[in-house]
Amino acid sequence: MPEGDMAKPLLGHRSMEGDPSTMPAAGRTIGVLGSGDFARSLAIRLVCSGFKVVVGSRNPKRKAGLFPSAAEVTFQAEAVKKTDVIFVAVFREHYSTLCDLADVLAGKILVDVSNNTEVNHHKESNAEYLASLFPACTVVKGFNVVSAWTLQSGARDGNKQVLICSNNQEAKRTVAEIAQVMGFTPVDMGCMSSACEIENIPLRLLPAWKIPILLALGLFLCFFTYNLIRQVIHPYIREQKNKLYKIPIEVVNTTLPCVAYVMLSLVYLPGVLAACSQLYYGTKYRRFPDWLDQWLQHRKQIGLLSFFCAALHAVYSLCLPMRRSHRYQLIETAVKQVMWKKMNIWVEEEVWRMEIYISVGIIALGLLSLLAITSLPSIANSLNWREFSFIQVKLTFSGPHTDHGGQRLTCHPSTSLLWHGNCKLCTGVKGKPCRSTPLRAPWSHGTPHPGGDTER
Ligand SMILES: NC(=O)C1=CN([C@@H]2O[C@H](COP(=O)(O)OP(=O)(O)OC[C@H]3O[C@@H](n4cnc5c(N)ncnc54)[C@H](OP(=O)(O)O)[C@@H]3O)[C@@H](O)[C@H]2O)C=CC1
Ligand SMILES: [Fe+3]
């Protein structure tokens, strides 16, 4: 999406805390076509927000009992006549059945709330399809990213953002005002061509995490196989010893830190590569190759997965003495000691090695936790840039800090984890975005820009 079309709050900085009744949208009559789950939740929310609601159903008598008494439930044509803004809470497949209403709908605003079952299911978006069926109406896409549940329980739970797009600015503003009175944050997604993108959002599953998770699983599999061969298969082949019992805990436990180390190094490596590339080309104004850019943008997820593996390793390690096999081994050692008539098996060097080994492990996990916690947007936002850089860079790794200006630069590529929300290191100004790639809306590729203000 061109930068000009970038998502932006629709109603500027107007406070949402104010009395809804003082807002121009409140008090007006809103129509809802359909009487399903979404229509019901929408009607409840609209009534609670001070709107008059008229529901259009094919069978109003049967459906009236499902709606709050303040909402009027009537036939579709009747409902449409009473209002200028109509939410079409009907599936795309049934849009054509509304064509009989074309005359009464003419000149009105239709809000398309529909979703699809697959990404890019149809050639044109549902909203564009609705607009083609009703050329005399103004269609606005919106509210599809909030579930019926979120609507009913209010904007306190779930996502507060409502993404809106339309070719008509005035209609978009009207719907945005309604969303705001309902307690949501309307976000302008530009013109109708963005509808397809908005419709795909609810269907995406952790897009920013896909590559890091696959990477972690791949590494886990490799190290697990290696450790399995070393700890189970090799002793069996060499000494015919059955060590299968080691698989669920010991093999997994030795695998986890290997994955954590490699993942952690993969957080730092792209920064070093980016710095090398800048040195090699002698300019900071050259765009990084796509693979490196993608890698840089996934550092936060890779870092958090590394922390997850390290935390699991700590838990597994704490549970090692709980195992029955461990108790048997202890008793076996004690018996052997008695049989050998050995009073003291204390080996000073071994003792020290283990004490230091565990202590360093605990400190490493502590530092990693600190990095992970400060990378969370809510915590990162509470730190000033100096505190943030102290924790994220000085405590871990100090690399060259690249300068930047324009869109071609990666912010401080080599300064480590930078699992940051807003790029404080670059500008020193909290919340001011720096850009490594043209700033895209968070949903455009699923990965918030590492230094952008689009982080969610
Ligand atoms: N449920 C959710 O959480 C969300 C739903 N949506 C969207 O909202 C829309 C409605 O979803 P939802 O309420 O869950 O669906 P439901 O199946 O619960 O309701 C659909 C409604 O469409 C009406 N309708 C109108 N014409 C027809 C027809 N020809 N055949 C069948 N039904 C018709 C029916 O009302 P009547 O019989 O009174 O005419 C029916 O109650 C969909 O487009 C969906 O993608 C979007 C976000 C979340
Ligand atoms: Fe360890």
UniProtKB/TrEMBL annotation:
Keyword entries, A-Z: Copper, Endosome, Ion transport, Iron, Iron transport, Membrane, Oxidoreductase, Transmembrane, Transmembrane helix, Transport
Disordered: region residues: 1-22, 437-456
Classification via Pfam families: F420_oxidored, Ferric_reduct
Compartment(s) where it occurs, according to its Swiss-Prot or TrEMBL record: Endosome membrane
Transmembrane segments: 211-229, 259-281, 302-323, 356-376
Ranges for domain Ferric oxidoreductase: 259-393
Cited InterPro entries: Fe3_Rdtase_TM_dom, NAD(P)-bd_dom_sf, P5C_Rdtase_cat_N, STEAP_metalloreductase
Cofactor(s) in the UniProt record: FAD; heme b
Glycosyltransferase recorded as keyword: no
Catalytic reactions on record: 2 Cu(+) + NADP(+) + H(+) = 2 Cu(2+) + NADPH; 2 Fe(2+) + NADP(+) + H(+) = 2 Fe(3+) + NADPH
Domain Pyrroline-5-carboxylate reductase catalytic N-terminal: 29-116
Membrane topology term: Multi-pass membrane protein
Membrane recorded as keyword: yes
Superkingdom: Eukaryota
Any one GO molecular-function label of the UniProt entry: cupric reductase (NADH) activity
Gene Ontology biological process terms in this record: copper ion import; iron ion transport
GO CC terms of this entry: endosome membrane; plasma membrane
Family: Belongs to the STEAP family.
Name listed for the protein in its UniProt record: STEAP3 metalloreductase
